[in-house]
Design goal:
The complex is a heterodimer of chains A (about 450) and B (about 400). Chain A is of the alpha+beta class and about 450 residues long. In chain A, about 30% of the residues lie in helices and about 25% in strands. Chain B has about 400 residues and is mostly helical. The chains are: A alpha+beta (about 450), B mainly alpha (about 400).
């Protein structure tokens, strides 16, 4: 018996010992992955000169000055002018609509979303809705949800609406600096064929897309490098003789309201800095050459001989660049949970799938979302508002915030707010949210 | 007397708590906490894996308490025991009808623990906590008929108790058996310490215990050679141990299924792979494996899912993904880079496709852990998830 006792005890002791020796079980992260900062900072220039001080003419004194004539800028200018403020709109190219028209990014996305009753409906109204309706009446818009428009018709309609609203339009004019007194913006210095000049204004709205104005005013921002493309259009699509045996169909894009004309999107290179002029110039040339060669390939395809390159976009498709660090950062959670804001200035919709809390939410199931006025207000500078793709939001939201629909909504909100600030003789950040909402609803906006 | 009255109340409370925590209601780390308190599961797991996690202390603590108070778990905590008592009370038959059946519980426990040391926790599925929790897990997510039938161990057990009152607790339960052995060891030890002469003449089960454990050990060694999972791979939760051990070690409690915030874990039901029947399987129909989430590993009482820190997730390989290009929207010049935006591990890049003006997403397999985010976000549903190869 003694021997067995010994063996038993030894076995128990052994197992206890082995248990003690064996270590705690957990997989830990071994490699500490450091965040590598993005490498695409604009190279600093080693050689500089000092520009001599000079007197420049004051071209105009106004109440609301909108920089950038894209969807946001147009909506802002129309809203401000209709609300009774003297308004100037400055645009660097020869057309309104920005990337929507000149960039040939023709779809007006995120017009629809799901409401609390789980019903998908139109959410973008107001000036954006008006523009969309006028294009539809002209027969220059196809599809009910996320319509695709004709760019020339859109340029025409925007010009008409700007003129009807009584906005002072300055084409071919580039904003080159800000005039700031303390923390208050007093105007913008612009350049054009007539030279360098100042436009003084009570409120300035930055609708440049790249946030050039808040950048010049020294606001903080998040630089987002994204893919830059160049859209083109093809003609004679209706003359394609299809279904030739053994022919691989080339990609010819999507239809536009003009029969026989397609628009072809380009995603382009990823991780590009949209504020680096060398990048922009190089991409412009590279893309144009590629498009030309691509169209030659299409023409060489049997049945596609008559297809031709109608045009390449007059604006390079910079999707994202600077994002303002403003008073309120709109989050993905806000847009997924029907978050309601006291200072709501508009509601936008969704056009693509998003991941939220581990689940994929399809575009036709995604909720509508409110945009607060605070997300258009910079932290430091007074009487400067930011609308368009560079207002304050977190990057996860970028697909919804950078597109035409949302730009029209933020533009309308900023324009109305600017006019109200002028009328109430208040700093733009101090205006009454209730009055702003009332004005927006009067102007046809839908706030839920 | 007063104390005994209290123990009943405590057990009623424990039963309610256990049932509430077994319901899939977002209890996070507390999901199915009673599975941690079973010393039988704890010992099997520790013997198989030869390592332990902090929460195993719950089982160890209960085991120590069993030495202090006989059948501590049965007395104060066991929800299955509580239900069996209630059901047996309703039985028309007398408990004496099956008096001749020997108490099998402790032999089952010894067999299982012996086999565990050899790598197969033979009867871990008979643990009452496993039976109890797997029943609740059948109703989490989107259960099929087969799942509910397969996990109906608990109601079956209750039915048996109606026919043969008290048979489970007194005769069959391996957890109860384990506690009985503890009792015997305790009395043996006290006899040894006090050196009572009486111990010499007492009935000593040591020889039988020794043999049973040996049979378990040898059986376990033989079975590990025999038991091989089928070749068809599928996605298991992150940091799952090798399929050979997983299939036998997993107690099917469904804690991971209940805890998963993205609800991507379901019961595996492949009739050609019966060994892995009802083990957790990950599918990427509507959700993906969240970055910085380790809930499934935190609630796994058997250690089938190895505990990992959220930071380690980018090194934990679940499988891989493959983009099927003809349907890729980006490769058709549509506005899409959703897969790249969705990937939290920087494993997708947008690169020239070789065609003019065209780009395409490319998955760098060395960084891809197979979380499935790209597959669920893909509007064209053209990313295929590839499970890891099996042995």
């Amino acid at each position: 018996m003694k021997r067995r006792d010994f063996i038993t005890k030894a076995a128990i002791a052994g197992s206890v010992l082995s248990l003690g020796i064996s270590c705690k079980r957990k997989i830990e992260s071994v490699v500490s992955d450091k965040n590598i900062p993005p490498s695409s900072e604009i190279p600093s220039f080693s050689k500089t000169i000092t520009e001599p001080e000079r007197k420049i003419p004051v071209f105009a004194e106004t109440e609301v000055l909108v920089i950038g004539g894209g969807p946001a800028g147009v909506a802002a200018a129309i809203a401000a002018s209709r609300a009774g403020a003297g308004t100037y709109l400055v645009e660097r190219y020869n057309h309104l609509g920005g990337l929507w028209t000149g960039g040939l990014v023709l779809p007006l996305l995120s017009t629809h979303a799901v409401d609390k009753q789980n019903k998908r409906k139109q959410v973008i109204f107001g000036i954006g809705g008006e523009i969309s309706d006028r294009l539809k009446k002209l027969g220059m818009s196809i599809h009910e949800i996320n319509p695709v428009v004709d760019p020339e018709a859109a340029k025409y309609v925007l010009d008409e609406m700007i003129a009807e609203a009584g906005v002072n339009m300055l084409y071919h004019t580039w904003a080159s600096n800000v005039i700031v007194d303390g923390n208050v913006i007093k105007g913008v210095i612009v350049e054009n064929k007539s030279g360098r000049m100042a436009i003084l204004s009570k409120v300035v709205i930055d609708c440049t897309g790249d946030g050039d104005i808040f950048y010049l005013a020294g606001e903080k921002y998040d630089m987002m490098n994204y893919h830059i493309g160049l859209v083109h259009r093809l003609g004679n699509i209706d003359r394609i003789k299809p279904d030739r045996a053994g022919v691989k169909k080339p990609d010819i894009g999507d239809p536009t309201p003009i029969p026989g004309v397609n628009w072809v999107n380009m995603n382009g290179k990823n991780d590009q800095n949209g504020t680096d002029i060398r990048t922009l110039s190089a991409l412009q040339m590279e893309y144009r050459r590629e498009i030309w060669e691509k169209v030659q390939q299409i023409k060489n395809t049997p049945g596609y001989e008559e297809v031709f390159l109608l045009d390449t976009a007059s604006q390079l498709g910079v999707r994202m660049s600077r994002i303002l660090d403003g008073e309120y950062k709109l989050t993905l959670e806000d847009t997924m949970t029907f978050k309601s804001f006291k200072d709501v200035i508009g509601i936008s919709g969704a056009w693509t799938t998003m991941l939220y809390k581990g689940l994929a939410v399809k575009s036709d199931k995604r909720p509508l979302w409110q945009i607060p006025y605070r997300s258009l207000i910079p932290k430091k500078t007074d009487n400067l508002l930011v609308a368009g793709r560079c207002f304050c939001f977190e990057r996860e939201l970028v697909e919804d915030t950078r597109i035409i629909g949302t730009c029209l909504v933020t533009g309308h909100g900023a324009g109305a707010a600017a006019a109200l600030a002028v009328k109430e003789r208040e700093l733009a950040r101090n205006i009454n949210a209730g009055n702003l909402k009332r004005l927006l609803v009067e102007q046809g906006a839908w706030l839920g | 007397m007063r104390f005994r009255f209290k123990s009943k109340e405590i057990r009623t409370l424990a039963t309610i708590t256990a049932a509430v925590l077994a319901i899939p209601a977002g209890w996070k780390s507390l999901t199915g906490f009673f599975t941690w308190m079973s010393p039988f599961i704890m010992l099997n797991s520790v013997f198989v894996l030869k390592s332990f996690v902090l929460l195993n202390l719950a089982g160890i603590l209960i085991l120590l308490l069993v030495f202090i108070k006989d059948r501590f778990f049965c007395r104060y905590l066991c929800p299955v025991g509580w239900c069996c008592d209630k059901i047996s009370g309703m039985s028309p038959r007398q408990a004496s009808t099956h008096k001749k059946i020997p108490p099998l519980g402790k032999w089952l426990a010894l067999l299982s623990l012996g086999a565990s040391a050899a790598g197969i926790p033979l009867l871990i599925l008979l643990d009452p906590m496993s039976v109890f929790h797997s029943f609740f897990s059948a109703f989490s997510g989107n259960p099929g008929f087969m799942t509910i039938v397969s996990l109906a161990g608990f109601p079956v057990l209750l039915l048996v108790n109606i026919m043969f009152p008290d048979i489970w607790c007194s005769k069959l339960c391996p957890l109860g058996g384990l506690q009985k052995i503890a009792m015997e060891i305790k009395s043996g030890l006290s006899a040894f310490i006090i050196k009572k002469q009486r111990a010499e003449n007492q009935y000593s089960p040591a020889r039988r215990y020794f043999l049973t454990t040996g049979i378990g050990l040898i059986g376990g060694l033989a079975l590990t050679k025999l038991v091989k999972p089928s070749g068809s791979g599928y996605f298991r939760p992150p940091a799952s141990i090798s399929p050979e051990i997983f299939n036998t070690l997993c107690i099917r409690c469904g804690n991971c299924i209940k805890a998963c915030p993205s609800k991507i874990i379901t019961h595996h039901s492949d009739p050609f792979d019966l060994l892995s029947w009802m083990t957790p399987e990950v599918n990427f129909n509507s959700g993906y494996c969240l970055e910085m989430c380790n809930l499934c590993s935190r609630v796994c009482p058997s250690g089938s899912i190895t505990l990992f820190s959220p930071e380690a997730k980018k090194h934990i390989f679940m499988g891989s993904a493959e983009i099927i290009y003809p349907d890729c929207l980006l490769a058709k010049n549509s506005e899409c880079d959703r897969c790249k935006a969705a990937c939290r591990y920087d494993s997708i890049t947008i690169e020239p496709s070789g065609e003019l003006i065209q780009m395409k997403p490319v998955i760098k397999s060395e960084k891809c852990v197979g979380c499935g985010a790209c597959a669920v976000i893909c509007p064209a549903r053209t990313i295929k998830m590839i499970p890891p190869d099996q042995g």
